[in-house]
Amino acid sequence: MQKEIVNLLKKEKKVSEETLNEIHNIDLNDFSNIVKEIGKSDTEYIKASEISKDLNTEYVGQNLYVYKEVSSTNTLAKFLSLNDVENGTVIISEKQTGAKGRSGKQWESPLGGVWLSIILHPNVEHSKLPLITLATGVAVAKTLEEIGVENTEIKWPNDIMINGKKVCGILTEAVAKFNTIESVIVGVGIDANLDVDQFPEELQEGTTTLKEELNREGNENLLIKIFLEEFEKISEQFNNEGYEDILKEWRKRSYSIGKIVEVREPFNTYYDAYVLGIGKEGALVVEKIDGTLVKVISGECIIKN
Ligand code: BTN
Q1: Which residues contact 112 (CB under 8 A, 6 or more apart)?
Q2: Ligand 1: does its nearest atom lie under 6 Å from the Cβ of 100?
Q3: Ranges for all domains in the chain classified under CATH 2.30.30.100
Q4: Sequence-ordered list of residues with C-beta below 8 angstroms from that of 255, at least 6 positions apart, any chain
Q5: Which terminus of the chain has fewer Cβ atoms in its 10 Å neighbourhood, N or C?
Q6: 17 CA distance to ligand 1 centroid (A)?
Q7: Most informative mutation of 118, 188, 224 for ligand 1 (most atoms within 8 A of CB)
Q8: Measured between alpha carbons, how far is 193 from 216 in angstroms, rounded to an integer?
Q9: What Å distances lie between residue 201 and 1, 105, 196, 292, CA to CA?
Q10: How many Å lie between the centroid of ligand 1 and the Cα of residue 184?
């Protein structure tokens, strides 16, 4: 974590070599204040002032920190979450050099995408985390619909798809102390103003971008603003009304239900199954070839038909 912060400070050249050499003696709180200070300036493409203009939220995005390059907005968000940040604080970076995807995979994050993390201090148990991811997926889908994307679907648990190709991924991580969740970091990566050939060859077939789907470059700041508003609406619904309606919205856009998949659960348990739906705790409910019903709580589902 400290390496990440030191790299950030070095890049921004806001701290002298001397201070960097003395970094081990700096109090964590001071450290986090320096990081916050750096994040207060706009970058070339991400403008906090544009995002905040008419931002219709109570708390999501009311504190925004913007960076040119970090290794991972989720990592930085986790660090800041330990040092007194408001619920709904958002960390955005133009680029990420070591971004994290699900299942320990890397996440490609070149300039032109939307890479952000939201820090929440919700009062939830671990078992509710999958539902936060599903709710975020619905918020992203609604955002894309608002900017004119048709045929947005959600592949369980968290891939946003357009015409069968992935355009966005979500990584939810918890910061816990003695088994109590102190913060939840919701990381969202949207392939916005990018061309598919900017991605490694092996990813190109299954990837799309908003630029390719809409045949134009979009305004990233507006996209972020709309998403933050949708995210807060759905968080409030989650907190006040429960998740049944959110799950309905998810099911309406499901890319997975009704398909044959290869389920890859942790610890290498692989099997083929038919997807029946999602249960009320956010698990994927599948029927194995031998007729047994299984609730898949975590893992990957590779679509076979
Ligand atoms: C996936 O594998 O589908 C999840 C990808 C999540 C990527 C986002 S980009 C912003 C945030 N920072 C990270 O390091 N990861 C998430």
Answers
A1: 45, 192, 193, 194, 198, 211
A2: yes
A3: 260-303
A4: 153, 154, 155, 156, 159, 161, 164, 303
A5: C
A6: 31
A7: 188
A8: 8
A9: 31, 16, 9, 38
A10: 14
Among the atoms of ligand 1, which is closest to the Cα of residue 102? 2
> What is the position in ligand 1's atom list of the atom closest to the CA of 109?
9
* Residue with tokens 């999602």, as numbered in its chain: 278
Which numbered atom of ligand 1 lies nearest the CA of 159? 3
Q: Where exactly does CATH 3.30.930.10 map onto the chain?
A: 42-252
Arch. (CATH architecture) of 42-252:
2-Layer Sandwich (3.30)
Q: With a threshold of 0.85, does the pTM exceed it? A: yes
Burial of residue 22 (number of CB atoms within 10 Å: 0-12, 13-18, 19+): exposed
Rounded alpha-carbon distances, angstroms, from residue 107 to 72, 101, 115 = 9, 5, 10
**DSSP designation for 255:** S
DSSP code for 197: G
Q: What is the CATH number of domain 260-303?
A: 2.30.30.100
